Protein: UBP16 hydrolase
Organism: Alaudala cheleensis
Amino acid sequence: EVSTDDPETAFCTLANREELNPEEDSIHHCLYQFTRNETLTETNKLLCDVCTQRHCGPKNNIKSEKKYVYTNAKKQMLVSRAPPILTLHLKRFQQAGFNLQKVNRHIKFPEVIDLAPFCTAKCKNVAEGNTKVLYSLYGVVEHSGTMRSGHYTAYVKMRAMNNHLSDLVLRGQSQALETEPVKGQWFHISDTHVQPVSVSKVLSSQAYLLFYERLL
């Protein structure tokens, strides 16, 4: 979306992100970096249609004269609509010379995550006055192996049906007031093998995909 909000409020979030101080190698740090405020200057300047029209006159003369005007700008990616299901995909590869190399280090992630510091202040699907957008973990996909070969396994929480989540998915409305993780039993699934595991085992996995459901 192209935002024409007041510059003073355009980059505001539901909760103060500057108080986060996220820990390195954590999902909070990943989200903080992904949604950080960037300044576009020099070769990254933004093509400004308004400035170009002021300089060149009517639009029909712009292409012929090719006098485009670029200006310094700020860019920030924030969540504009809080989804019922939050899916986080971790980039587990990096460039190593001419090759791609898998990133194996553990990234910490919580059972309950607050998305508010990464949401725009006018975030849709969030009641006015709310400063929290909570999600509960219910699924993890883990990859073992290398970039060339490997094996995918999953951790899934078996829990009771979330009626509030159903209302949010079907009607776009949320009356949920839960602030604690959804209760249930975790299972590790590898091909045809399924076994119960503890939540500590889940949180120590090398997550590749994380699945959270909306609480608040």
User: Anything to note?
Assistant: The chain has a mean pLDDT of 85. The two ends are 25 Å apart (CA to CA). The longest helix spans residues 163-171.
